[in-house]
Amino acid sequence: MTQNPFDALGGGGFDMNALLQQAQQMQEQLQAAQERLTDTVIDGTVAGGAVTVKVNGVGDLMAVEIKAGGFDGSDADDLSDLGDMIVAAYRDAKSQADALAGEALGPLAGGGGLPGMPPSGQLGF
Question: Domain of 58?
Fold first, then answer.
């Protein structure tokens, strides 16, 4: 008869199958949340809608829309301003996507990682 090495912990140890099942459920929930984020589209706008970008919930750039008549394609300054506005609109949309992802994934990620560790994304790698 084989002795359970976890008997020394009292009560027969823990149920490895239950632990694995819980881990699998969490992985499935995480995958479903990531799929929902990928399907979500968020707009970022600047200059009263002169430039709008669309990103999905994970921050991938999906589209750039530029309002007609607002920019002169032959003017270098206008084109430079347009580039700056696209970047600003993307940053707006990306910050919204990051907040949405934090809400969707936060509970699945344990809300802040391991005790004594900084929240994920703040480890510097």
Answer: 43-106
Angle between helix 16-39 and helix 76-105 axes, rounded to 10 deg? 150
pLDDT of 14 reads: 66
The SS3 call for residue 55 is: strand
Tokens, residue 113: 């990682």
How many domains does one find in the chain? 1
**Model-level pTM greater than 0.90?**
no
Residue 51 lies in a domain: yes
Residue 63 lies in a domain: yes
How far apart CA 125 and CA 123 sit, in angstroms, is 6
Alpha-carbon distance 46 to 124, whole Å? 31
- What would the two tokens of residue 47 be? 């200059």
